[in-house]
Structure formats: structure tokens, C-alpha cells
Recover the amino acids of this structure.
């Protein structure tokens, strides 16, 4: 079954343990980062594994591709380092590895998924701001977390669900 | 811990961490748990998402305050006034739990006399918190079905720390918010096994299980257990950490063995600590890495790290857990207890330190510590998540929630101990016009001997910084990311400036994980618990000039 990533911004404390866990899983380099907003909220940013993928569309060598129906990944051997994908990504989730001259991003910890484990960032999140599972499970989790949250979902059964603070809807604080 | 012992009869979290999820109101004061106890966030946020009200009182708008429904930005060291004013409101509006007070508490009239002096308007002047917010906090805490108090070193690391803890207990007793799920008075301890270390008597005045050393019967029973004559054991309490430094100055203390501590970074007035340690005739340090303290040692003994050791740890909520080692000790490294046994043997106590393994030590612990009597290595090894003490017999399930029926005091009643506001030991002056408060950041642990060696953490938080309000920054001419000197009566430290609206004007914050920070802090002590006033020092700040010398 395809899986989705769930991010609850109302729970993130900005501790950056997800970054460190990602780094440990990916040879010392993190594919996610935590953006602090107005010293009031924190948002972990990693590849959303979108349903429609500007990164795949702009990639001239088809290095970026769907690994599985719910995971978008980069074949480093095909990447020529043109960085068009970084420009195209609406989330700023693709970074350029200057050492190897290739694009890098979250692969949802493919190696861990194959062992039946969750992505490292999800396992390590002490505030339980991150979760991973099937769409219906994540919707149930988001709903359980209360009416104060608004959550965005895509039409399909993959991608990323996000719960954002109520004050972000419309004019903001 | 002394504050809770005086009022409730035991000094530990009354409720488990996970029980925070059952609270309808959480009052966090002097605790930045989102950074310093990240796992606590999980249960506090669960409560909030269930609809609980989260009140956070802190001088800084910390990540803990991010999720607060009500944020009370109090000035450092004014906690007691805030709590008194909350009780003033609760009594004035008739919100206290009279049934509970009559049945289970002593000292209500005396408390009323003191808190009547603290109407919210007066407290607003002392604390800087608007009076209407004090009223709201008092109403929310008193009227929720289950309210929990969470506090930490923002409360205790003051010369008035013990008194403020008593006042938090007063608040819980007044409202009956104790002894039930989702309630309680919950101090979060600073390290993973500091509760266990205290339980084991790693304090100057008690044997394991908080049995006073000054009591002759205790002395006799421990002498018997250890195969010694009673006269071999002292009836006189020893010295606390900061008192030891003072004793070196006075020539009364000549040799030390230090383990699991890096006092040159972690102690207040750290430059003075380093000077004092240099006067010792002999200093042995048991450590896993070279530290600022091992540089002064005559002998360094290599200790095993946490992953190389086995035995029990007692978490902040009294949960005793058995942990197995993950890897064998590397090189000559050895578990601390083995090093201690060998040292003892060389000092002529080979017969008293003959433990073959960790289990044997635990059998002695349970024989001598009533609250651990029902625990055993086998039982703990088979209980995932551990067992909370008191656990009085092998078929006793442990005690997740304390004080459900009575308090651990003569007569079983809780004691209200009214507390007057005591200003911090060090006042600001023309020369030192700003208030410096210290604390921790999420990426580092204590004195940093481990985390400053961890690339992933050090890269993210590489150096000492000082948080400055934009208004203060303008007055003193320090710019974002510029270097500045912060100076107190004890010393000077160079730090990178971070300008933020999340700290009030006139207050600076620095994390103590970096070597120079505690050159600045005050070693004035709480008269009861002897904890130093890390949280308030008078200071000044100036920009570092080009080619400015290092302090």
C-alpha cells in the first residue's frame, strides 16, 4: 500500500533531532532541515514526494523518477548537476551537493523501509510532530489531534499531509 | 527537593511524565521542557490537543511557550510573587478546594496571611506580568478538573529556590490538584539518572533512601551492613559541590576524586573553581573524554561510557529501569563502580567492596533502601519501562502517583509553608545594569564534554551566544552576529550576539554548555538546598572591538 508522510506544525518544537537522524542515515549529510518561522513555529522541510512533480518534469536526464508509486528519488549516476530541480521545487527541498556535484533530497529512508522500519526522522521525533503511514491512518491521526488544526491533503493516496496552526489560515496572526 | 520534602514529605515528581497527557491544565514554570526534556513535550502536547490549557511562565518566549495558551513573561527570580498572587486570586474568588484543605492540609490560615499581601496588581509590578494574566492563570489552574505543575531549574537555581518550590506545593495543596491522575507537582530533573543518584545518597547529608547521616540508628544499620564499627561512619553531613570549592580556599579540603562532572565548565563562578582546584594536593578525575577538569588532574582514570555500562537508572519520575550494555568497554575503560571498588581496596576497604557484578550491588541497595525493597534485578530486567518507587514488596506494583491518600509527613497531612518574596542575591547597579540568566539549548548536554565532541550537534550550535532584546542591543551598540563581551562582578566572556524579541529588554540569556559562560554566574547559594543562583547575575555588555583581547 502507498504511504504518506504526516507533519503536524502545531507540535514541532524545532529541536532538529530529525535533521540529525537523517544525517546519520545518509552518510553524514541531512536531506531535511527545520525552518523556524518568526521565532514562534518550526517546520521540518523535506521532499514532499508530490503527486505532480515539477522536479521530474524539468530534469533533462530523467535522473529524478518515481522509485515506487509513492516515492520520488534521484538516480545520482544520471544527475548532471544542472540544479533545475532545485529551482523547480516549490518547497526548497532539493539541495545541491557541491562535493559530488549532484542533487540530493529525502528518499524516505528506502533502506529502512525495506527492513520494515519507519523513516529515521519519524522514529526520532520526540514531540510526535512527524508520522508515516497509509492515508486513512494519517487522516485519522490528524482528526484525532483536534479541531484546532487545519489539514491539507492531496487528492491521491500519497504525498504529504500537513497540519498547520489555525492562525495561518487566511490573514495569519 | 528540600522544598517538596518539607511540604509533601518526598522530593520527587508526584506523577509520571506520561500522566501529563491526562491533565486539563498544565502550569509550566521555570521549565523549558521543549528544549531540555524534549520527550515531555509529547505528553504535554497530547494534553493540549485534547483541549487542556497550557500556561508557561518564563522570562523568555521559549519553544515551550510556543504552544502556550497563556504566556506569563516574568522577570528572573520573581516566581514567588507570581505564585503568591495566583493564590491570592484563588482565595479572593473562592476557588480553593476547601474539602481537600480541611481533610488533608495544615497551615491554611498562615498561608492566607501571607498571600493576602500579594494582590495581582502588586505582583504585576514585581514580576512584570500583567495583572489580568495572573488572574486568568489562577482561574485556569484552580478550576480545571486536573491541573499539573511542571517546574525545573528556572525555579530551583536561585538563592530562594527551596522557598519557591514550597510555594508551588502550597498552590497544589490549596487547590487539591495533587494525588490524582493529571495533577501533581512535578520537578523535571536535569540529567537522566540524577533522581537515582539522589536516591542512592549521592548527597552530603543522607544515606540511600534519604536516611539522614546524622541519625545514630541509620549509622548503626549501615555500619552493620558494611561490616564496619559505627564510629567508622561520620554523623556529620558532608559538603555540597560549591561548599567544597570554598573549603579548598580555606585549606580544609586537600584532595578530590571527581567522576561524571566537569565542574570547571558546569559550576558557577567557574574561573574561581579552576583557581581553587589548582591548590589541591591531589585531584583524580574519572572521565570518558579529556575535559577542562581533567587538565588539572594529577591522575585520570578512564571510565566506561553509558553504552558500555549495565545496571539501573532512575528517571525523573521515579521509574527504576534496568539497562544492559550495548557494547563492551573500549581499551582500559572500566565501569565507574569497578574503579571505585579498586580505589576502595587500595584504601584498605577490600572487604566492604567485593561486588562480583551489578546485580550484587542492587541486592545491597534493596536491602538498605525501603522504597526500593520490592525491586530486584530479575524483576526489573523483565519489566519494560521500569517500576516507579516506592515499591515496598516483591508483589507491590510500584507507585506511579504519590500522595493519593496521605502525605509522607507525621499525621499524613500536607504542610502549607507560606513564602515571602526574596529578591535575587545580586541586584543590578549602574555598573552592572542588566540581568543575565543562564540555561540550556536543545543541541547540547550539560557542560558539553560529550555534545561539543559530536559533529552533528556542534556544527548546529557551535559557540557561546548571548540573546539580546533589540532595544537593549541598540542602547549598548551590539549588532546581530557580532562579537560582544558580557561582564559580571566575577568575570568576562566573549559571545556571539543574537538579537531577538523573545527576551525582554534588560535581560540577557546565555547557555552554559560552553566553557566561559560560568565565569559569569553567581555562586551565592540557596541556604537549604545549597543550589547556586545560576539564573540571575547582574551584568553589562559591550561590543568586542577589532583586536580586542580575550578575557
Amino acid at each position: 500500500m502507498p504511504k504518506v508522510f504526516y507533519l503536524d506544525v502545531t507540535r514541532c518544537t524545532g529541536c532538529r533531532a530529525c535533521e540529525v537522524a537523517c544525517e546519520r542515515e545518509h552518510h553524514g549529510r541531512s536531506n531535511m532541515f527545520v525552518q523556524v518561522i518568526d521565532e514562534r513555529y518550526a517546520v521540518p522541510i523535506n521532499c514532499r514526494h508530490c503527486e505532480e512533480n515539477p522536479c521530474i518534469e524539468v530534469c533533462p536526464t530523467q535522473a529524478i523518477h518515481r522509485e515506487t508509486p509513492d516515492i520520488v528519488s534521484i538516480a545520482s549516476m544520471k544527475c548532471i548537476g544542472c540544479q533545475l530541480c532545485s529551482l523547480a521545487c516549490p518547497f526548497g527541498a532539493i539541495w545541491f551537493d557541491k562535493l559530488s556535484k549532484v542533487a540530493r533530497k529525502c528518499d524516505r529512508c528506502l533502506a529502512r523501509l525495506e527492513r520494515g522500519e519507519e523513516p529515521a526522522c519519524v522514529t526520532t521525533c520526540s514531540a510526535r510532530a512527524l508520522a508515516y503511514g497509509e492515508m486513512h491512518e494519517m487522516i485519522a491521526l490528524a482528526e484525532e489531534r483536534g479541531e484546532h488544526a487545519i489539514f491539507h491533503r492531496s487528492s491521491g493516496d500519497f504525498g504529504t499531509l500537513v497540519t498547520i496552526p489555525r492562525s495561518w489560515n487566511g490573514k495569519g496572526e | 527537593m528540600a522544598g517538596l520534602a518539607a511540604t509533601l514529605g518526598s522530593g520527587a515528581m508526584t506523577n509520571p511524565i506520561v500522566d501529563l497527557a491526562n491533565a486539563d491544565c498544565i502550569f509550566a514554570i521555570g521549565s523549558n521542557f521543549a528544549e531540555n526534556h524534549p520527550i515531555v513535550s509529547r505528553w504535554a502536547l497530547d494534553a493540549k490537543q485534547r483541549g487542556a490549557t497550557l500556561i508557561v511562565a518564563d522570562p523568555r518566549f521559549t519553544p515551550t511557550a510556543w504552544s502556550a495558551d497563556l504566556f506569563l513573561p516574568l522577570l528572573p527570580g520573581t516566581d514567588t510573587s507570581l505564585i503568591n498572587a495566583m493564590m491570592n486570586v484563588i482565595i479572593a474568588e473562592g476557588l480553593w478546594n476547601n474539602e481537600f484543605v480541611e481533610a488533608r492540609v495544615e497551615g491554611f490560615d498562615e498561608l492566607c496571611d501571607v498571600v493576602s499581601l500579594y494582590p495581582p496588581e502588586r505582583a504585576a509590578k514585581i514580576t512584570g506580568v500583567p495583572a489580568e494574566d495572573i488572574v486568568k492563570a489562577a482561574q485556569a489552574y484552580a478550576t480545571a478538573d486536573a491541573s499539573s505543575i511542571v517546574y525545573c531549574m528556572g525555579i530551583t537555581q536561585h538563592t530562594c529556590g527551596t522557598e519557591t518550590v514550597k510555594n508551588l506545593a502550597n498552590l497544589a495543596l490549596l487547590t487539591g490538584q495533587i494525588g490524582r491522575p493529571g495533577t501533581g507537582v512535578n520537578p523535571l530533573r536535569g540529567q537522566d539518572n540524577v533522581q537515582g543518584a539522589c536516591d542512592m545518597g549521592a548527597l552530603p547529608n543522607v544515606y540511600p533512601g534519604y536516611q539522614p547521616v546524622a541519625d545514630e540508628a541509620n549509622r548503626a544499620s549501615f555500619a552493620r551492613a558494611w561490616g564496619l564499627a559505627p564510629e567508622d561512619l561520620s554523623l556529620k553531613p558532608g559538603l555540597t559541590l560549591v561548599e567544597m570549592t570554598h573549603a579548598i580556599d580555606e585549606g580544609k579540603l586537600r584532595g578530590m576524586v571527581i567522576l561524571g562532572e566537569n565542574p570547571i565548565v558546569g559550576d558557577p563562578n567557574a574561573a574561581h573553581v579552576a583557581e581553587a582546584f589548582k591548590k589541591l594536593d591531589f585531584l583524580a578525575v574519572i572521565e570518558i573524554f579529556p575535559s577542562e577538569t581533567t587538565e588539572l588532574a594529577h591522575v585520570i582514570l578512564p571510565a566506561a561510557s553509558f553504552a558500555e555500562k549495565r545496571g539501573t537508572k532512575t528517571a525523573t519520575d521515579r521509574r527504576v529501569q534496568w539497562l544492559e550494555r550495548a557494547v563492551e568497554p573500549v581499551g582500559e575503560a572500566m565501569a565507574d563502580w569497578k574503579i571505585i571498588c579498586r580505589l576502595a581496596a587500595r584504601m584498605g576497604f577490600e572487604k566492604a567492596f567485593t561486588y562480583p557484578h551489578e546485580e550484587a550491588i542492587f541486592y545491597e541497595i534493596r536491602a538498605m533502601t525501603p522504597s526500593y525493597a520490592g525491586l530486584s534485578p530479575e524483576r526489573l530486567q523483565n519489566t519494560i519501562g521500569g517500576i516507579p518507587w516506592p515499591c515496598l514488596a516483591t508483589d507491590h506494583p510500584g507507585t506511579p502517583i504519590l500522595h493519593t491518600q496521605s502525605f509522607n509527613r507525621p499525621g499524613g497531612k500536607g504542610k502549607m509553608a507560606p513564602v515571602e518574596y526574596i529578591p535575587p542575591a545580586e541586584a543590578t547597579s549602574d555598573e552592572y545594569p542588566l540581568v543575565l540568566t543562564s540555561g540550556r539549548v536543545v543541541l547540547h548536554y550539560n557542560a558539553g564534554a560529550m555534545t561539543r565532541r559530536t559533529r552533528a550537534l556542534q556544527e548546529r550550535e557551535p559557540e557561546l551566544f548571548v540573546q539580546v532584546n533589540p532595544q537593549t542591543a541598540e542602547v549598548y551598540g551590539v549588532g546581530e552576529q557580532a562579537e560582544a563581551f558580557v561582564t559580571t562582578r566575577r568575570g568576562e566572556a566573549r559571545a556571539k550576539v543574537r538579537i531577538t524579541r523573545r527576551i525582554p529588554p534588560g535581560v540577557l540569556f546565555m547557555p552554559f554548555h560552553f566553557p566561559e559562560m560560568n565565569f559569569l554566574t553567581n555562586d551565592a547559594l540557596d541556604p537549604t538546598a545549597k543550589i547556586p543562583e545560576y539564573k540571575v547575575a547582574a551584568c553589562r555588555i559591550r561590543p568586542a572591538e577589532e583586536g580586542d583581547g580575550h578575557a
The longest helix of chain A spans residues 135-144. The longest strand of chain A covers residues 159-165.
